[in-house]
Specification:
- This protein has a single domain, classed as Rossmann fold (3-Layer(aba) Sandwich).
- About 45% of the residues lie in helices and about 10% in strands.
- A hairpin with a 2-residue loop joins strand 5 and strand 6.
- The protein is α/β, with parallel strands linked by helices and about 350 residues long.
- Bound molecules: thiamine diphosphate and magnesium ion.
- Thiamine diphosphate binds next to strand 3 and strand 5.
């Protein structure tokens, strides 16, 4: 039996900045780098306050971003304004980098439909709670770009757990066959609630799943914002240029509970968490910038003060919104509400 050499495949791995913040080939310069850092820090402050609001009963269940800031900001920052983002439910930092007002994000987590009304021009879809469905939307939207001869690409976010959903695999199959300009960003944060990535799939990487669908899969250090940015930028350029889809697996870690309704201590060790804390994506970029003398303690203090004030203003704006209308929750499921929905609304 002979092997066909054309049928041997490989997965590219990408890390540009090590855990100590050393990097010889940063893909962005001063101003962009500072902005990326600011988005990550602001996202963390937003996140921390969301957890507090939930504990005080001022919002509902919340899914934290903690630890995944580089995967999200690095990829969202690589997008152009005309590209479209299709998030799952943990993409607060990606939303922020796309310009989403924070008070609307808090409104979403308070169960207020107005939080899903994305301001026109931001080119973002709303949060997708059903695991995996957003990738189908992203591929359809990307196929439309080809049909209409428009030059945007789409980015869809999902987790390691979502790769076990048929929807995600179907989306990738369509994307490959139709050469859709879409970038699949899988944040492999090692856990799907209490299910570890090792039990999610027997594949050595998630990136390699792309090969079966006829396109490239790249595995990046998801806590290295430079690597995430470069991989996404290249994938988007390829997509817009007619080269079809890419799957980017960002290796990262969910540094807290799945949501505020979960207790991760029941199924994973403190030791594992401590190991990942050493890889914190925000610390890593700060160390790099400090070494290059483009960041210092004074700038850090000012940024934290400013971001905290903006988050507090967003909380105020969210809490001062006129009372939400409960019937809103029925309005946006279908273009025309079904009879069953109409009956539920009446009762
Ligand atoms: C279709 C569907 N099945 C189950 C759930 C319940 N659920 C919510 S999040 C989640 C795990 C998702 O894991 P992953 O895709 O890795 O994303 P992460 O939460 O780690 O960001 C599950 C099973 C759901 N929301 N939708
Ligand atoms: Mg996960």
């Amino acid at each position: 039996m002979a092997y066909d050499e054309r049928l041997s495949f490989s997965v590219r791995k990408l890390q540009l900045m090590d855990e100590a913040g050393n990097c010889s080939t940063p893909p962005v310069k001063g101003e962009d780098m500072r902005k990326m850092y600011e988005f990550m820090v602001t996202a963390r402050i937003f996140d921390n306050n969301a957890l507090k609001l939930q504990r005080e009963g001022r919002i509902g269940t919340y899914a934290s971003i903690l630890g995944q800031e580089a995967s999200q900001v690095g990829s969202a920052y690589a997008m152009q304004k005309e590209d479209w983002m299709f998030p799952a439910f943990r993409e607060g930092a990606a939303y922020l980098a796309r310009g989403m007002p924070m008070h609307l994000m808090y409104a979403h987590w308070a169960g207020d439909e107005r939080g899903n009304h994305i301001p026109p021009g931001l080119n973002c879809f709303s949060v997708s709670i059903p695991v995996g469905t957003q990738s189908l939307h992203a591929v359809g939207f990307a196929m439309a770009a080809n049909m209409k001869n428009e030059k945007y690409a789409t980015v869809t976010y999902f987790g390691d757990g979502a790769t076990s959903e048929g929807d995600t695999m179907e989306a990738m199959n369509f994307a490959g066959v139709f050469k859709a300009p879409v970038v699949f960003v899988c944040q492999n944060n090692q856990w799907a609630i209490s299910m570890p990535a090792k039990r999610q799939t027997a594949s050595q990487t998630i990136a390699q799943k792309a090969i079966a669908f006829g396109f490239e899969g790249v595995q990046v250090d998801g806590n290295d914002i430079f690597a995430v940015y470069r991989a996404t930028k290249e994938a988007l350029e390829k997509a817009r240029g007619g080269g079809g889809p890419t799957l980017i697996e960002c290796l990262t870690y969910r540094m807290t509970d799945h949501t505020t309704a979960d207790d991760a201590k029941r199924y994973r060790s403190d030791k594992e968490l401590e190991e990942w804390k050493k890889k914190d994506p925000i610390d890593r970029l700060r160390k790099y910038m400090e070494k290059k003398k483009i960041w210092n303690a004074d700038m850090e203090k000012k940024l934290i003060k400013n971001a905290t004030e903006r988050v507090q203003a967003a909380i105020k704006a969210f809490e001062e919104m006129p009372e939400a209308k409960p019937e809103d929750m029925f309005k946006y499921v279908y273009e025309k509400p079904t009879q069953a929905l109409q009956e539920q609304m009446k009762s």
